Amino acid sequence: MADTAPIDALGAMLLQHDFASAVAYVEATHRSGMAVEDVYLDLLAPTARLLGQFWADDVCDFATVTLGLGQLRRIRESLVSHLVEGAQPLRAAGHSVLLVPVPGEQHVFGLEMVADFFRRAGWQAQSVPIRSISDLTGMLRRVHVDILGLTLGGTQRMDLLAATIRKARQASRNRGMAVMVGGPAFVGHPEYAALVGADATAADAREAPIQAARLLRLLVERA
Fold first, then answer.
1. Which pLDDT belongs to residue 86?
2. Which residue ranges form the domains of the chain, and what is each CATH number?
3. In terms of C-beta distances under 8 Å and separation of at least 24 residues, what long-range contacts does 106-111 make, across chains too?
4. Phi and psi torsions of 126, nearest 5°
5. Digit-coded pLDDT (tens) for 155-200
6. Total Cβ atoms within 10 A of residue 88
7. Where do the TM regions start and end (predicted)?
8. Whole-angstrom Cα distance, residue 217 to residue 198?
């Protein structure tokens, strides 16, 4: 069983708005020998999920969770330079990925982490919140996107995700745009990706660029 003590400790610091202690704790964890990508995936990501669970369980209010996630975002930003150290060079004509939540999803911390891993792999990556499907379709009409990544928190909104994917494909200026999905709704159920009309899913931020590259190669071979 994984040790949840570090996650619980960091979560408590964030709920108490003790940002200085939270930063020092994460930095000490990194210095102790934990690779930065493991800090991302084994500490920051589960801490973000824990904060969300606290809100769902009425342990704390939405404002407290939002402030905690804001502090967690600042910690992530302080680690980005370590994550992308030695990254593949960004090419002007390189592949592009647009990462967005399903309309109505409140938090995008996980997508920001995924974007960091894509950038490390040499992709042009953008992570943005959207308020409606029309926000997304408007972006896709203006900008060429190779991969659209969508995240969903729970299975209750699968129909909305399917509709978002369908309208995104119709609007995209890149008729060959591929779609990937992720988030808690697909953890343990990668088969749900096909049900909503997506081309692939990924288990975590580390795997996402790998799966995306495989997907593009497959689409080229099929063309």
1. 64
2. 5-83 (1.10.1240.10), 96-222 (3.40.50.280)
3. 106/62, 106/66, 107/48, 107/52, 107/66, 107/69, 108/151, 109/48, 109/69, 109/72, 109/73, 109/76, 110/45, 110/48, 110/151, 110/182, 110/183, 110/205, 111/149, 111/151
4. -135, 130
5. 888 999 999 999 999 999 999 999 999 988 898 899 999 999 999 9
6. 13
7. none
8. 16
Q: Is the pLDDT of residue 29 over 80?
A: yes
Q: Residue with structure tokens 């992308």? A: 84
Query: Model confidence over 61-111: pLDDT tens digits?
Result: 888 888 999 999 999 999 998 888 766 665 545 689 999 999 888 768 889
Q: Which pair of tokens denotes residue 162?
A: 């399917």
The answer to whether the beta carbons of residues 193 and 183 sit under 8 Å apart is no
Query: In angstroms, what CA-CA distances link 143 with 164, 197, 203, 212?
Result: 17, 22, 27, 19
Q: Kind of pairing, strands 124-127 and 178-182? A: unpaired
What pLDDT shows up at residue 90?
A: 55
Q: Measure the N-to-C terminal CA separation of the chain; round to a whole number of Å.
A: 45
